Model the fold of this input.
Amino acid sequence: MGPLRKVLVLAAESANDTRLVTELRALGYEVTHAGPHGLTPSDADLYRDLVENSYDLICTHDIEGRLLSVNAAAEKALGYPRDTLVGRHLQDLLVPETRHLFDAYLAEILEQGSAHGVMRMCSADGQICDWEYHNSERRLPDGGRIIRGLAHDVTEQLRASRELRASEQRFRALFEQAAVGVAYIDTPTGKLLEVNHKCAQILGYADEDLASLSFEQLLHPPDLPLYEQRMGQLLQGEVPEFVVELRLLGQGGTSVWVALSVSPLLRGGARSSRHMAIMQDISQRKLAEQQREMLEAQLRQAQKMEAIGTLAGGIAHDFNNLLTTMLANLELARLDVEPSHVVTASLDAAEAAARRATDLVRQILMFSRKQPARRAAIALAPVVADSVRLLRASLPAAIAIELHLEDEAPVVLADSTQIHQVVMNLCTNAWQAMRSERGRIDIWLDAVVMPAPRPGAEKPTRFARLRVEDTGEGMDARTLERIFEPFFTTKTAGRGSGLGLSVAHGIVKEHGGTITARSRTGEGSVFEVLIPATDTAAAEVTGESAPSSPLFGYGRVLYIDDEKALAAAVSRMLESLGYSVTVCHSGDDAIARVRENCQSFDVVLTDLSMPGLSGIDVARELMRLRPGLPVILTSGYADRIGQDLAALGICLRLDKPFDRRALSEAVSGVLRHAVRAAG
Ligand SMILES: Nc1ncnc2c1ncn2[C@@H]1O[C@H](COP(=O)(O)OP(=O)(O)OP(=O)(O)O)[C@@H](O)[C@H]1O
Ligand SMILES: [Mg+2]
Done:
């Protein structure tokens, strides 16, 4: 260590705008050899040199602010010659907007002996600079007071810190007001370090509640593996970032679909221990996608049904012709043999098969909505009773069918044929579910009142309830889920087509009702159908009536059908009922016959679709040739004809396949009506 030296230090601290001392400026001058009365002249010279060559602005002023001395740096910075500065009021050098602060500065320094701050001064050439000063009071031996001033230029420093602050504010606003959720996450622990408001809003949390959670806690458990896998890739450096769509758990456990983008936070170009997650709520889009998928599935299903409908419509015509021929011939064959004849059993079996085929065609047509509905206000009890009567005849005796009809079952607006079909389909399934050929089917019909819906809502509250309960093998949950799907069957080929319940479902839905099923393997099944009640009084019940004997009659029938085998069978049936029949195989032929002698026929029975003139064309022409001649239209395609049949003189439509009884009823009914009209 060398000898001690005495140093004069002129020092000033430097502070930034937050008033933290950032540097200490000092000018040191050795005064080891200064005498007791002060500096030697050479010392004073050196000292002056030090002050004069300082880059900082050094001055003195009196207690009113008048400058007493300035150094060269002040001269240079302010742009005025020293002699014009000395004697000038410091306040005048401040920019006008800050001059009012000068009194407070003077007061502070005089009260406290020092003052520290920033003065904004304007130089001679109009340049504005910020000077950070640290001034102090000096008391003179004569009691006078002067102020020492030391200041340095902080213009650049203040501008940079102002810009930094503005930039921070911009980024904070970006974070807080972003339209996407932003979360900073501690990578090792997964803890949420900071979340913006949008993030909390997406998840339905209060901002402060969310900040205490870890990000993994927010993941919908089934989506956690996906997140972990992608996060693993990110941490391994396999990907620089990732974007994934997954569900997060919102407040209260609701799941929220988000598009999540995760990237590591970089510090100085290297990865830090934090990562950032940006999330966008895509719940609405996901919902729309789900709805679109559902609609597409429905559309595909509808197109499938449409195709089946077209196909069914196409073959139904031919099938019904064939079936009418079969049934007619079977009935005719029966007429030719004694009931006790050995062939009767074969005829019965053939007829049962033909009727089952008839049923199948009707099911397909109904399923493809080709069968027109004929709704009326009806009581369901007779329809159900009628269906059960038919079933009883065809089921093995060991299967009991019990009917429980409650009187108060309400009147409904329904197509009795369709309701009949529903009962038949449910009961056929119930019977088929009985493996052992023994069992019991219970059918209930009663009224049920549903709890009132919202006040003012116009939903029906009263329903007719049909319940079909069986003691069959029941179903497991997976089967139960699919039973109403078209073509879903667990039965062997030939035994089930999987249409029964979908037809029933379609019918019930069209009636504004519901159909539900309950079942367990080995415990039988219960099907429940609800059809809304109507206020209209019941019309005559149109359920299938009990078979009655055919009605015999007489008269001259002109019969037109291009199907030769069918025409032959039907004409024989008509003859067996007492009518004289002329058969034509085309509309032109028939018209020619009538033209020959327009009085030679009492009734015309014509097929609808034929090559050349259709049944409708024939009716129209007959109307012209012989007004009032009754026409019966037979059709194998049970679709709407789209014409006003009565206006064409068509008094009845007889759907194929028809049997002898239906034919007899049609012809005799029309003839009776014609006679009455004529008389
Ligand atoms: N009462 C029941 N008991 C047990 N299973 C039933 C019952 N009703 C329906 N099912 C199940 O539902 C399936 C679908 O029934 P659905 O009536 O639609 O078609 P299907 O009976 O198989 O054929 P189809 O009725 O066209 O002849 C059946 O194959 C059967 O597995
Ligand atoms: Mg079935």
User: Anything to note?
Assistant: The domain at 178-281 is CATH 3.30.450.20 (Beta-Lactamase). The pocket of magnesium ion (ligand 2) is lined by residues 425, 428-429, 496, 500 (CB under 6 Å). The chain has four domains: 7-157, 178-281, 375-532, 556-678.
